[in-house]
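Deliverable D4.2, example record:
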Amino acid sequence: LLNAFKKHLLFVFAFFATITQSFGQSPTTYTTSGTFTVPAGVTSITIDCIGAGGAGGSAGNGNNRGAGGGAGGQYARSTITVSAGQIYTVTVAGITVAPNNNGNTDGNAGAFSEVTRLGTTHARANGGDGGIRGNGTRLGGTGNTTGAIGNIVVRSGGNGGDGTSTASGGGGGGAGTTANGGNASGTTAGAGATLLGGNGASGYASNHSGDDGLNYGGGGSGARRNTSGGNGAQGYVQITYTCPTLTSNAGTNQTLAACATTTTLAANTPVNATGAWTVISGSGTVTSLTSPTSG
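Output generated by the structure prediction step:
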């Protein structure tokens, strides 16, 4: 019962006092595969994906052998409608490992990064193509948007540089939020696009193994004579959302009739949270501390 003469109360929402509803960090970033659970009150998410960079080609033990550089990984963005509690599968492309030998082997293509749920792919960025071996065509991997999925934008990774008889090709730059990845030219690496796209690795005019592309999605450079190409950089996924705004309203002041000892409070009902009444002046007893309409 509320004391008739000591009646001033304040309904304080958990958002302002004890937090009872927690929200995930936004953005949520992934450098390895995992899952994403939609927090309470969130109705849409934006997904950014970058595929892995392609690996540079290797070169055998012979003259006139410079391999091509790997292409940069793709970028894709989607915004989708979601419901609280839904679970999405997040796949992040790992490092693209170049063939570990001193022979003539094409570089491996990078893997894809994607976000899916119940068999539907909502965003996907494929990896860059690998560079061609030193005793082959020596071409750098070609950047493209083939197979990318994004309802906002998809971008191409940069081309890897071509190898020549005297030098290996640089790696292409990874695509990013603002642009396609930069193309490599000869030994000069392609620049990664801001934001998130990684630079490709530089090629060599001397006998040297290829260098690794930089995070995220940078292509590895090709090898120059009797060495292995460089690895392509790993992919990346980022999920961004807006947390709901929690607004507290303790309701209007309650005026007790003469000789009355009780009243019914009238706060708003918390959304995605719980509240608790706190007496800030005088004394009194609240029947149910967490009920917006307690007596």
